[in-house]
Amino acid sequence: MSEKMTEAMREAAKAFGRMGGLVGGPARAAALTKAERVSQATKAARAATKQRREKAEFRQQEAERARTYRKRLKRLKRLREMGRKKRLKVKAAGG
Questions:
Q1: I need a labelling partner for 10 at 20 to 30 A (CA). Which of 26, 54, 68, 81 fits?
Q2: What is the distance between the alpha carbons of residues 4 and 54, in angstroms, rounded to a whole number?
Q3: Interatomic CA distance for residues 35 and 6, integer angstroms
């Protein structure tokens, strides 16, 4: 196999792989017992639920971070404005 793989060879390998995949899934499912299928389905459902929960928790954490960030910005702006007002008062007083 020292020769390079041509596009036609690549397409043929792809087709064979797909054909095997199409045959393999149903054949594997037919070989499983009902208890094994139920077990796998339960495991898959739990994994999907866990992913949804983690995604929701992540979104919630991100929203909380954004709220905290906005609060901090608002506070900084308020403090900055207070500092300006104090400086203006000092200047107006002649200091």
A1: 26
A2: 46
A3: 46
